[in-house]
Amino acid sequence: MIVNQLACPGIGTFMGGRRVAGLIQATMMIAGFCAVITWGVLQISAVYKFALDARATEVKQPPGWLGIVGLALCVAAWVWALVSSFQILHESRRQQSV
Hints:
- This protein is mainly α.
- It has helices at residues 2-7, 11-15, 19-52, 64-97.
- Helix 3 packs antiparallel against helix 4 (64-97).
- The two termini are 22 Å apart.
């Protein structure tokens, strides 16, 4: 469960036997992470360009939707992985008691 939440959501689900769900969760997390990092790099680049250009009057902001969508994908993957972890844990405890 720790691997599923802290390392990369989806890996623990995959290791728990839910391969398709695990791959989708990991893909969502990686895509979201890449989108947030891209937004951040574009933001830093825009600030540097503004700081180095004496004629610039405003910072050209990167598209905000990129960061928002990326963050939403990360949160959705994390929550889905958390739910999957509890389901796998519950199923394993139920099988042990039988």
